[in-house]
From TrEMBL:
UniProt-listed InterPro entries: GAF-like_dom_sf, HTH_MetabolicPath_Reg, Tscrpt_reg_IclR_C, Tscrpt_reg_IclR_N, WH-like_DNA-bd_sf, WH_DNA-bd_sf
GO molecular function: DNA binding; DNA-binding transcription factor activity
GO biological process, one term: negative regulation of DNA-templated transcription
Gene3D superfamilies the UniProt entry points to: 3.30.450.40, Winged helix-like DNA-binding domain superfamily/Winged helix DNA-binding domain (1.10.10.10)
SMART domains: HTH_ICLR
Superkingdom per UniProt: Bacteria
Pfam families assigned: HTH_IclR, IclR_C
Protein name listed in UniProt: IclR family transcriptional regulator
Domain HTH iclR-type: 12-74
The IclR-ED domain, residue ranges: 75-257
UniProt keyword terms in alphabetical order: DNA-binding, Transcription, Transcription regulation
Transmembrane regions listed in the UniProt entry: none
Amino acid sequence: MNQTGAQPPAGTQAIRRALGILRLLMDEDGELTLSAIARKLDLTPGTTHRVVRALSADGLVAHNPRTDSYHLGPGAILLGQAAQRVHGLQLALPVIQRINADTGESVNITIREGNESVVLLRAQSTLPLRFEQHPGARFPLYATASGKAMLANSLDAESYLASLPEQLPALTSHTLATRDDLALELAETRDRGYSIDNEENVAGVRCVGAGVLDERGLARAAVVIQVPTVRLPEDRIPELGALAIDAAKEIAPFLPPDRLTRY
């Protein structure tokens, strides 16, 4: 029962379980057995089998008989392609692919979901030293270039800051220490037009990002260039910041308003 005392709609639990399985297979970026799915989601084997069978019937999940494992099916691919068309991401992809080709580095388009930054689209670096990531990956706003780029150009930055503990949870030794440090960083991001993640989310990785702004100047998404620290000295950061800003401006017309970022 929820806080209002009302019962959730019929079928809600089944839907949540199905979505949980799809997200798990997306995050795992591979295959999982039924027992592994059940264990990771704390489901019974029977429930897992029923939900996976229903997803398989619609092509959202596929079975590999050789390994007796499951992975995302062709239906999930078609659904993702439809979402890209709806969100204009197929038009934005060439932009980040161009930056990827010019710099050799990984480039993301991210959106905000609540207190997290979510990778929507990625052009992966082909250089030997790189940080592996995939669409669907989620990270906290306060420790990422994408999160700071979107927060700096949002209506709820103050309420978000107020919701954080005074001492921010440390993800690395470089994570900003306090809420006041983050507030100052957001102000600097607004002033210079781009954000910086100085190994705050992942040790050894620096990121530079810019908000994809609507006509009100509010961020609907962010463009982020992600670089191993050894290839991104501080004096190169403004160069990548300018690239991120230009890319965000180029992408802005492709992204429909009020459809992506969800606070």
